[in-house]
Amino acid sequence: MEKKGGDSFRFPGKLLFLAVLALVFMTLLLRDRDRNPFISSHESAQNQYTTPPPAPACFLHDPSNSSVSMEPEMKTNEGNSQSMTIEEREEASENVDSSATSYPPEKEDGNKNGTSLVETKVCNYAKGRWVADSRPPLYTVGCKYMQRNWACRLTNRTDFSYEDYRWQPIDCKMPEFEPSDFLRRMQDKTVAFIGDSLSREQFQSMMCMLTRGEGSPDVEDVADKYGFLKLIRKGAYHHHGWAYRFRSTNTTILHTWSARLCDRKPINATDPNTLYAMHLDGQPAFIRENLNQINVLVINTAHHWSKTMVNMDKEVMYVNGTPVHDKFLRNIENAKIFKVNNIVKWLDSELASHPNLQVFFRTTSPRHFFKGEWNTGGKCDNLVPMTRGSEVLGDESSDKIVAAAVQGTRVKILDITALSDLRDEAHISHYGHKANDCLHWCLPGVPDTWNELLSAQV
Fold this sequence. Notes:
Blueprint (H helix, E strand, L loop, with lengths): L1 H30 L5 H11 L38 H6 L36 E5 L32 E5 L9 H7 L4 E6 L1 H15 L7 E3 L8 E4 L2 E4 L1 E6 L4 E7 L5 E4 L9 E4 L5 H6 L5 E4 L7 H6 L2 E5 L2 E2 L3 H4 L1 H20 L6 E5 L28 E2 L7 H7 L5 E3 L2 H5 L5 E3 L7 E5 L4 H12 L1
Helix pairs in contact: 5-12, 9-10
C-alpha cells in the first residue's frame, strides 16, 4: 500500500518539473532569437535585395597613381631644316588626332577605412556644339595686346563669318565671360600661360577679353618684375615674356616662352655657339622659380616636338644629367610623352604644398593643312564654318597623351582639341601673308573660346 501510494505521489511532481523545464527552454530560445546564426544569415540575405546601390564615383583621382604608358600614340610629321620663322617652325610638327573630346575616364577609389569616396560630377565643357551667335566679338580688332598679323580684319580677308559662332556645352551651361567678374575672382592672383606661340595667342586673347580691346590706365606693364627683357634679334625687338597687372584687383596676367616645357641650359656657357641641354626630366626655370607666385598655371606643348625643330634650337636631349642614348627615348615622340608625364607628375607633387594653385594642361591646338603640309602646298582655304560638323559628342579626349598624363592627378585638363578641330575656316590662312598659316587662329576667334572654358573652371 505504501509503495503504491508513493508512486502516485511522485508522478504529478515529474509532470510539474517537465513543464517548468520546457517553459525555461522556450524563454531562453525567444530571448536569444536575434543571436541565432541561422536567423541572422537569413535576414541578411533578404536585406541585400532592398539596400540601394552606392552612388557612382566621378572624377576620383589617386595622386599616387601617376604612371602611364610610354607607348607612342601620335605620329610626328617633320618639316625640312630650312630657315623658318617661329610660326613656320611650329607648322613643321606632328599631326593631331581629331576624334571626340572630353575629360579623361573617371576613376574610383576608397579611403583608409575601406568606404567608397564620392565626389560631385564635374561638367565636361569640351562636349557640346558650335551654335550661331549674332553678338559682336568680345573685343575690338585694334586691341593693343594682340599681334597685328593675328587680326584677320586687318588683312585682305573679306569674310568674317568665323566670328559668328559660340561654343555651347551639352550637359551644362557655360557662364558668359564677364571681365569684371573674372578679375574679381582673380583678385590678388597671378594667371600664367606658359608654352609655345599658341600659348602666347591664348594669353593675348585673354588680355583683349579683359580690356575689351581698349587701352586702360588700370593696366600696368610689369614685365620687368619677371625679367622679361627685350632681346634684339636681326634688328628687331623680341620679348621672351609679357606681364600685365590690373591695378584695381591686383591681378597679373603673364606669358613666357617654353615650347617643350623642359629645363634648358647651355652646355658650354663660355661658347657663344654652344649647344643647349634640353633636360626632359627638368622643369622650365620660370615655373620652378615663380611657382609660389602663380595661382592659375596654363601650360601646353605639342608642335615643337620634331627632330628638325630640336636641331634648329641647337638642343640635345638630356635625362639624369647626361645625353640621352636610350633608343626608345631618342624617338622624338616618345621623348614628348616622357616630358608630358614628367611635368604633370612634378606639378601634381607640388600642388600638395601649394593649396592656392590650380594647374591646367591645355590640349593640342589642331593644325588644318589640307592637300599637303605647310611646306608642300598645304592650305586651309575654306571660309564656310562647320563644313565638317558642329558637334563633339564623344567622352574621351582627342589628345590621348595629355589625357592619360593628367588622369589620376590634381592637374586639370583644358580640353580644346576636338572643338577647335571643327573650325578649320578660322585660321589666318594666306590672308596678309606670303605663306599659309593653318596653325594660328584669327583674333578675335577660337582662342577666345579656350579662355571662356578656362574662366568657367577656375
